[in-house]
Amino acid sequence: MKGFIRANKGFILFMLLFGVFRTAVADWNPIPSSSMRPNLLEGDVVFVNRLAFNLKVPLTDRVITETGEPQRGDVVTFSSPTDGTRLIKRLVALPGDVVELRNELLIINGRRARYDAVQQVMEPAGQGQVPALRLSEHFDGHARRIQFIPQVQTPARNFGPVTVPPGQYMMLGDNRDNSADSRYIGFVPRNLLIGRAERVLVSADMLENWGPRFERFGMSLRD
Questions:
Q1: Which DSSP string corresponds to 25-55?
Q2: What is the CA radius of gyration of the chain?
Q3: In whole angstroms, how far apart are CA 217 and each of 40, 63, 95, 204, 222?
Q4: Pick from 206, 211, 219, 37: which is nearest to 123 by CA?
């Protein structure tokens, strides 16, 4: 074993430094589900800036120092407060915000988001397709595309009003009728934030034989 270490110490050091880099500085995150459609698609791989919010002890959720403030509209990776699964969602509400959904429409601190650019599309569902509505949602100077699936009946279309606790954040999937987000898992404490997703690195169509989607390579996720 000692001989192996001596013969490969350069490679071992590289792997250790690479592991620290991925767990403390920057990372990539594959998108396995449709919860962030239409902005993130299954088969996208996104670049995650782990220093956007916190500097952590590698491989832990222990925060050494805060490096930036999460903002409404950020696409964030985080550990689920229920089971630790890594998730990626849209941060829609900050500590102290009063949030509610009324028939899918987002209301924060008594202000209703504005919606326009309605588009009807067909979305993959199981072995077939279902109609979906895509809209632009505008709030607090930010705009993002979101999606509703009218034929999916879910009580989560109406939520709150609730006040986001200190040091916690509310996350929603852009695919509002197909997302296990803060309506189900609760608010997300700051120490569970992993980082901000900045852009799509590469993309391949999981539903069509993994063909590359070159038009998505390098696509920014910032407003």
A1: TEEEEE--SSTTTTTS-TTEEEEEETTTTEE
A2: 19
A3: 12, 32, 34, 10, 15
A4: 37
- Name the active-site residue from 80, 89, 179, 203: 89
Q: Residue 51 corresponds to which amino acid? A: L
- C-alpha distance from residue 66 to each of 8, 53, 62, 89, 101 (Å): 36, 6, 11, 21, 31
Whole-angstrom Cα distance, residue 187 to residue 167? 10
Q: Is 204 helix (H, G, I), strand (E, B) or coil?
A: strand
35 is catalytic: yes
Which pTM was predicted?
Answer: 0.86
Q: pLDDT tens digit string along 155-191?
A: 889 999 999 999 999 999 999 999 999 999 999 999 9
Catalytic residue from among 35, 80, 182, 203: 35
Q: How far apart are CA 88 and CA 77, in angstroms?
A: 4
